[in-house]
Amino acid sequence: MTTDLFVVPPAAIFIIGALLIPLFKGRVRQAYLLLIPALALFDVYYMQHGTYWLQPFMEYELILGRVDLLSKCFGYVFTIAALAMTFYALRVKEAGEHVAAFLYIGSALGVVFAGDLITVFVFWEVMAWASVFLVWYRRTKASIDAGFRYLLVHVVGGVILLGGIILYMQENNGSIAFDAFNYASTATILILLGFIINAAVPPLHAWLPDAYPEATITGAVFMTAFTTKTAVYVLARSFAGFTIDGFAILMWLGAIMAIYGVVYAILENNIRRLLAYHIVSQVGYMVCGVGIAASATGVISQTAIDGTVAHAFCHILYKGLLFMGAGSIIYMTGKSKLTELGGLYKVMPLTMIFYMIAAFSISGAPLFNGFVSKSIIIHAAEMDHNAIIFLMLEGAAVGTFLSVGLKLPYFAFFGKDAGIKAKDPPTNMLVGMGITAFLCILLGVYPSLLYNILPYPAAVADYAPYAAGHLIGTLQLLLFTYAGFLIIKKKLHPENTISLDTDWFYRKGGVLFVWLMNNPLARGTQWTIDATLAVKNFAVWFSRNPIEALGIVTDKICLVILNILQGRSAAGERAKATLDSRMSAYPGEPVRRDPIGVSVLLGTLFLFAYLVIYVIAPHLSISVMLGLVVVAVIAGIGVRTRELMQAVG
Amino acid sequence: MWFLEKWLENPKTVKKMVYLLYVSLIISCLLGIAIHFAPPAEHVEHVPFVFEQIPIFSAIFGFIICILLGLGSKAYGHNVVMKEGDYYDN
Description:
The complex is a heterodimer of chains A (649) and B (90).
Chain A: H1 10-20, H2 26-46, E1 50-57, E2 60-67, H3 69-88, H4 95-113, H5 117-136, H6 141-171, H7 186-198, H8 207-211, H9 217-238, H10 249-267, H11 271-295, H12 298-333, H13 349-363, H14 369-383, H15 387-412, H16 427-445, H17 447-451, H18 468-488, E3 497-499, H19 503-544, H20 546-566, H21 570-585, H22 596-616, H23 622-646
Antiparallel strand pairs in A: 1-2
Helix pairs in contact in A: 1-2, 1-4, 2-3, 3-4, 3-9, 3-12, 3-16, 4-5, 4-9, 5-6, 5-9, 6-7, 7-9, 9-11, 9-12, 10-11, 10-15, 11-12, 11-14, 11-15, 12-13, 12-14, 12-16, 13-15, 13-16, 14-15, 14-16, 15-18, 20-21, 20-23
Chain B: H1 2-8, H2 11-37, H3 57-81, E1 82-84
């Protein structure tokens, strides 16, 4: 195999290529940027099936190149999408943004060709850190905040994944093999959780519609393709036989996800957030496909995986194109809300045409690529005799056409003219959109191009998306959705609001956490400090002249008692005046100058008291002794109070 | 693209398009009924679900789900999750 000599890990092309970007400027940089994905595409094309680039690491062997039909299919679409998206992003001046995008693409390819869990984890983390810069380069407060939330979620996801991998290694004698996990244990469930955070499965999905609309115009386009689709890849690779006690959890999560995204998209006003919710919905089909594969066996299972991979392939193209269209609108008009847009078809006709190609693709209209890929997953549900899943997926298709195919174009491109002065975006952006639009139609018209590179070509060999019954059924579904839209159009009018999602819990939770830190906890800390200082100050004051201090403290207590017993009285006033003068004179003369006899007397008394205690104490319990002390103190205070009362006379 | 604008802004065109929609709705249903009662020879698709034996199931399903999703989502939004744009800033 002579070609082996020339083939390198496609991840390496992007990652090393990324680091050299800042060396070039102007036209040279643009040519260089296009060269990298083109090289990677040829590289993937020439890769032979097998296992390559084994790398020893501690006592493990990392596999950087596991090439088979599944990984190659994702390799193709990742590099093709990278090429088209790079065209779109060609005019971005910031070298750092290109570096981040290429590191991100490279690490996504790294995950796809990884043959072991450690490699998966490392590239998984690089992906999260590289992509967050695509959000931050927008340089607005909203994008910086959203970027931090994005990062927090992905770092938590990464830690969960790492925990799962370590437990898995313990369970399997240190095996780091990245293959099918067909049993449920703490380890595999943690790995699954790590994966489905990146697949944006509700309720762990909120990072996606939170961050993507805040990313840069071109950054968001890259982000639509890689994070969720690498998650779909790892799910298809390792969870296609995973059930929890026979319950195919991914099938149900995926179907719920498909509907969930659609519902939120109907409420959305921001065009890119609307489309982001449709990523959640469309990835739902793929997650559901993996779940159907797990619930079935044999050819049904293979069909479901084929459908998942085919849909991921098509989704990357049309979703990239949708974001390119929406990005062009924002780039050229500076507006991103449906309530501020309208009538754009007059000034941005090419953008409108490209957008509509993508919209028909995502809606699964015949002759567009979504039609030939989405239907395989629905077909697998049919073969599996699962009526509820079938209806949920068909229902989500209706909702997709309603929002992406009808509502968004109606209110942005047609509808009431907002009188916006704009024009179609620069040529390079149109070329990027053109390539992607061409591929959307090409695969819709010649589905066999796609079907031949799927993981199980035999399973879909007989599948005919353009069979009369399916074709007519789809047309009915879409046409009657259109009719329904016209009837409820007024009710669907966009509103300038935001919709709360599960990120509410950590966004409001975060505010609550900070409040708890700043208020009760900080005050509690301050109180402890104050109390400790007060005790210290008292001890210092007391030690200056203990006898006098004891007298003052006693008198203070007595005075309080006196005031309670008598109210304000002349005796009280006088006693207070005396006490004040004593306090201002404090510490006064700490050493008492008494005749020696007094000392001897005190010493004798002390020894006598000691003797009495020594004799009596062993016969008393601790509580009785404490009681005696309390009685003595009370008696002392009583005597002194009486003294003060009589002092008036 | 002034010609597109001129064409689309003409009320007659809009009327024609609405008629076109009605016609395509009817044709799609007729085709569905035709294929249901007289399936073509190469038509080997199996029908696993009971509801698929209704001749124009997709049309009815699409229409009902469209209305339900549209109105249901808006009702959910208005009653539960929709807030002012500065909700998180306060």
